[in-house]
Prior knowledge:
The complex is a heterodimer of chains A (299) and B (279).
Chain A: H1 2-41, E1 44-45, E2 55-56, H2 60-66, H3 69-100, H4 107-114, H5 122-133, H6 139-142, H7 158-183, H8 187-195, H9 200-229, H10 232-237, H11 249-258, H12 266-293
Antiparallel strand pairs in A: 1-2
Helix pairs in contact in A: 1-12, 2-12, 3-7, 3-9, 5-7, 7-9, 9-12, 11-12
Chain B: H1 2-38, H2 42-45, H3 60-66, H4 71-102, H5 108-117, H6 123-136, H7 143-147, H8 154-165, H9 169-177, H10 182-193, H11 195-210, H12 214-219, H13 228-238, H14 243-273
Amino acid sequence: MTSSRTRRRQREAALGYLMLLPALVIFVVFIFYPFLRNFQLGFYLNPPFPNLPKRWVGFDQYRDILSSASFISSLKTTIAFAFMTVPAGIGLGLALAVTANRKLRGIGVYRAIFSSTVATSVAVAAVIFSLMFNPIVGLLPWMGISPTPPIIENPDLALAAVALVTVWQTLGLTFILLSAGLQAIPEDLYEAAQVDGAGGTTRFWRITIPMLSPTLFFAVVIGSIHAFQSFGQIDIITSGGPFKHTNVLTYSIYGELNGTNGPPNPGKAAVLAIALFAITLGLTAVQMRVLERRVHYAR
Amino acid sequence: MRADSRAGHRLRKFGSYAILTVLAFVVLFPIYITVVNSLLRPVDIAARPPVFFPLHPKWSSYADAWNGGHMSKYLVNSFIVTIAITVGQVFTAILAGYAFAFLEFPFKRTLFAVFLATLMVPFEVTVVTNLDTVRALGWFNTYQGLAVPFLATGFGAFLVRQAFLQVPPDLSDAAALDGYGHWRFMTRVAVPLARPAVAALTVFGFLGAWNQFLWPLLATKDDQLRTVQIGLKTLRQTSLNDVNVTFAGAVIAVIPIAIILLLFQKHLVRGLTAGAVKG
């Protein structure tokens, strides 16, 4: 009796492991192993010319890269990019969501239009806008926005241009997310506030924003993580230029791998990847902390 | 007084529509201009003032993008890779979700933590070695190389497990009494009940796979394997003198995903809000 129960338990365990196996194999080969190997790659200095042996330098390479001017400037560019895209994207998404959150005939059409940019990809948006920025065929120059050098080659404007593309491309997703959050707010809260004589502005700041804060917070964290991983729009529109003014962290990893700056340098790419991981981890940790404390329902 | 407030109400309603329409115009403008430009001759695209409506639409741009621009090949590649990734993700998520929700085995919590840990590692962090791995396997510039690294996600397993945990225990007891094995219980009872989560995962996985950029750029080297996103970049570089063809390519790249979103938007919203709005 007991032995048959033990056997059944063993069979259940075996089945459990078998069902986890496919996913685990993928995780080990394509996530955990490459993740850990970054640390090892970082200990080796790649030779300046191909076909020479790699040299063990321990933590020297980490120190040299992470304190180098090019890394610091790339990090600054990435942070500036996040500050250009996240607040503007969420602000606009919120404006659209609040405007569309009313009972009007035909509102479904407007909602569909506001969420329409989800259908585009980063590459599609980048191609469309890069043509719009173009000094000859583009519309922006015709509208009077025609700086010299042209937008994409302009060190002061290139990053903002890429940020604009990003904000537009993610607008649909932000709109959908924030609309779902708005619709989850109980309507009687607004009715009660109206009875108390609260105007539209008061209701927005005292009800909408506090009740929406978990969703807003989620959008900020996800938006920041995405901003730090942005790649396609930069590759298509500026290729990191002009003069590295849009060389965000992910693009610098790609540059080292692809050999844009001389021969491919996996050691350097690995150290940059670890830096990217640390930043993402930090952002996720902040999210977990805040969500756990649930400060969003304070008061 | 009453007429006054009714007029005010009407005015407010009109104001709402006015604001909504202006915003809709701003959001849609880049898409509109893309469609218009895809139907113009290159000369007209550069015309000043710009042409905002194609009086003599030049449909041949689409044929040029489709054939000469290889968009047809890119689309096929994207569909193959995207469908493989989506099916794989749903399959591995159902299996793992079932094990975590319905089975007992040693180290279950540890293994679940391992699954969640994968969410902490952005794909960009793993590309250095994944490129070596794919080359070592002989998968560089192949469909396997594009799809296999993405056949499982921690997010998917988590989503399906949560849905499975909602299945009433009575049901699994009743199924056990009826002599259902785990396989039958999973396919006949658990998965049908978890359909919303599975649907959300499907739409999410499809969208993510379709829009991938960095990996297909690194892991392919020619038109035989390029996906739509990378192909569009190539098309832009090769048709510099025929901008209309690039615009047509962009429209072609958007159409499949637009159709899928129109059909399944509800599921996308559910997947998106799974982590955000507290139920």
